[in-house]
Design a protein that fits this description.
This protein is mainly alpha-helical and 340 residues long. 69% of the residues lie in helices and 3% in strands. It has a two-stranded antiparallel ribbon. Residues 41-58 have a biased composition (Low complexity).
C-alpha cells in the first residue's frame, strides 16, 4: 500500500483531519489529507437542494414549440348586434298590412263568406254594448251643463249643444272605444292563437292566403259596421239626453229636437261617419297586425291582445284630434242657429 493510501486510511479526529466533513445539513464535501492538493470534487447532494441551488445548477428547459396564434377577430360593427324595438317593427308591419289589404280590396280578392260572418260579429254582436254606453254617456253629458244653461235662460240651445257634441265627438269616439275593447281584442287573440299554433302555415299549404282569408274580411267588417253603429249610438244618445232633460230639468223634448235640427248640418253627420270609418280601420289593422306577429305561446297571445287594445285606443284619440283639426278649422255658426 502506498503512503498516500495509508494517509487516507489513517484514522484522524473529526476536528483536525476529517475525511468526511458535513459542511451543511444538505450537502457533504470530500477532503483529502492536508499534505495533498485539494481537487475539486462535485458536490454530492444526499437531500433535496434548495430552490436557489437547483435554479443555479439546472439549465431552463428548451421552449416548446407553440401553436400558431389564431388571427385576431374583426371588431363587431356598430349595428351587428342591434335589432329594432318590437314596437317599431310591429308598427311597420301594421303599415305594410294596411297596404296589402288596400291592394287586395281594389283587386277584388275578398272572401265574401268570411266578410259576412265578421259583419254579423262586429255589427249586431257589438250593438248592445255600444248602445248602452252611448245612452249613459249622453245622459251624463246632459247633467253636466243643462242646469247651467237653464239658469242662464239658454234652454232653447240645449238640443243644439247636445246634437253637436254627440255627432262630432262623443258618438264616433265612444263607439270606437267599445269596438276596440270588444272586437279588437278578439281579433288579436284569435290571430295570435292561430299564429303560435301554426294554423296560418296550414292555410298556406291548403292554398289560401292568410291575408285574404283572415285579415281582409275583418278590416272591411270594421270599416263598414262602425258607421252604422255610430249613427245608432248618436240617435240613442240624443233620445236619452232629451228624456233626461225633460224629466229632470223641465226642458221640453220638442224644444230639444227643434234646436238640434237647426244646429246640425249634413257635414256634421258626414264627418262623424268618416271618423268612424277611420277608427274602424285603425282597430282592425292594429289588432290583426299584432295578432299575426305573436310569438311565445299563451303568454305571447295575452301580451299581444293587451298591446293591441292599448295601441288601438291611442290611435283612435290621435286620429280624432287630427280629423277634428281637419274638419272643423274655423269658427262656425251652428250654435247661433240653435239659439235662434
Amino acid at each position: 500500500m502506498s503512503s498516500a493510501a495509508a494517509l487516507l486510511l489513517r484514522p484522524t479526529s473529526a476536528t483536525t483531519h476529517p475525511l468526511l466533513h458535513q459542511s451543511s445539513p444538505k450537502s457533504y464535501f470530500l477532503r483529502l489529507h492536508p499534505s495533498r492538493r485539494r481537487l475539486p470534487v462535485p458536490r454530492l447532494s444526499l437531500t433535496p437542494t434548495t430552490a436557489s441551488n437547483s435554479n443555479s445548477n439546472s439549465s431552463p428547459p428548451p421552449p416548446s414549440p407553440s401553436a400558431p396564434s389564431p388571427a385576431p377577430a374583426a371588431p363587431p360593427s356598430l349595428f351587428s348586434n342591434w335589432s329594432p324595438p318590437r314596437a317599431i317593427w310591429r308598427g311597420l308591419s301594421a303599415l305594410l298590412l294596411a297596404g296589402q289589404v288596400f291592394h287586395r280590396v281594389l283587386t277584388g280578392r275578398v272572401h265574401r263568406r268570411n266578410l259576412l260572418a265578421q259583419l254579423r260579429r262586429v255589427g249586431p254582436g257589438s250593438a248592445g254594448v255600444a248602445l248602452l254606453t252611448a245612452a249613459f254617456v249622453g245622459m251624463a253629458f246632459t247633467i253636466q251643463f243643462v242646469r247651467e244653461f237653464t239658469r242662464l235662460g239658454l234652454h232653447r240651445s240645449v238640443g243644439g249643444v247636445l246634437a253637436l257634441a254627440l255627432a262630432r265627438e262623443l258618438s264616433p269616439v265612444v263607439t270606437a272605444v267599445v269596438a276596440a275593447g270588444r272586437v279588437g281584442s278578439a281579433f288579436a287573440a284569435e290571430l295570435g292563437t292561430m299564429q303560435v299554433s301554426e294554423q296560418t302555415d296550414t292555410l298556406r299549404v291548403l292554398g289560401a292566403h292568410p291575408i285574404d282569408y283572415l285579415v281582409v274580411p275583418r278590416v272591411l267588417a270594421c270599416v263598414l259596421a262602425l258607421p252604422v253603429l255610430t249613427l245608432i249610438s248618436f240617435a240613442l244618445g240624443l233620445a236619452s239626453s232629451a228624456f233626461l232633460a225633460d224629466s229632470v230639468f223641465g226642458v221640453s223634448v220638442s224644444i230639444i229636437l227643434e234646436s238640434a235640427r237647426r244646429a246640425l248640418r249634413p257635414w256634421d253627420l258626414i264627418s262623424s261617419l268618416l271618423k268612424s270609418q277611420v277608427f274602424g280601420a285603425i282597430i282592425a289593422v292594429v289588432s290583426c297586425a299584432w295578432g299575426v306577429t305573436t310569438h311565445g305561446g299563451a303568454k305571447g297571445v295575452g301580451e299581444s291582445t293587451t298591446s293591441a287594445v292599448v295601441v288601438s285606443l291611442v290611435g283612435i284619440f290621435v286620429a280624432d284630434f287630427a280629423l277634428s283639426c281637419l274638419f272643423f278649422q274655423g269658427a262656425g255658426d251652428s250654435l247661433k242657429y240653435a239659439m235662434g
